[in-house]
Amino acid sequence: MLLEVNDLHVNYGAIKAVKGISFYVEKGEIVTLIGANGAGKTTTLRTITGLEHAASGTIHFKDKDITNIAPHRIVEMGITHVPEGRRIFTNLTVMENLKMAALLRKDPEGKKASYEEVFELFPRLKERRMQPSITLSGGEQQMLAVGRAIVTGGDLVVLDEPSMGLAPKIVDEIFEVIQRMNQEGKTILLNEQNAFMALSVANRAYVLETGNITIEGPAKDLLTDPRVKEAYLGS
Ligand code: ATP
């Protein structure tokens, strides 16, 4: 097992955002967390990557306990986070953003190859590599955020709402890249409000409702589960 979350609780003061969830991700899988606004998806991802504090429970990655350790150490161990709202450095160029993402990498050859890989996946970023990122469209900024994850080079890529605010065509493009990253060896944990897209690409899925996991199983089963259809697939 690559990632194992066990009985995780996360609070913001008196607010109990995550109330004892357990789930796992095997190497090579795409696993998705779906659920309504405020269900606790972002909090869960941020706790895995060390940005929020777990009140109790454990998180293991590659059999090591990573609960509440510093975010930079979690990156070094091989978890890369693509946060909600993209969080690129808008005053830097596309290339500078990619170089920043490579700062923790210690293999110059791999670093160079990863820039090429990003430009191959997203030719639009290659054309715009000297452009300040603030001039990119929303979709291009999301491509850059995903590109940064590729350059960082972790084994597990944690993506928070990659489709948010993007036009359907761009969403398709981003999901194609997520699948390609997976085929090339990355394990993916995806938090996504677009349940149909998420379940279409994932191997397994967990439904979060107000801090609890209420449904789990193979993604293709959830696509036809009446409870999921009614609450999350609009039919
Ligand atoms: P969304 O899709 O809207 O981002 P989510 O499933 O990711 O939703 P979270 O963002 O994890 O949900 O929020 C879970 C709960 O924790 C919500 O009730 C939210 O209001 C609360 N919450 C999140 N961040 C904070 C914070 N920094 N301080 C206080 N409460 C917070």
TrEMBL record:
Keywords: Amino-acid transport, ATP-binding, Nucleotide-binding, Transport. One of its GO terms (biological process) is L-amino acid transport. It comes from the Bacteria. One of its GO terms (molecular function) is branched-chain amino acid transmembrane transporter activity. Signal peptide: none annotated. Residues 3-235 form the ABC transporter domain. Belongs to the ABC transporter superfamily. This is Amino acid/amide ABC transporter ATP-binding protein 2, HAAT family. It comes from Flexilinea flocculi.
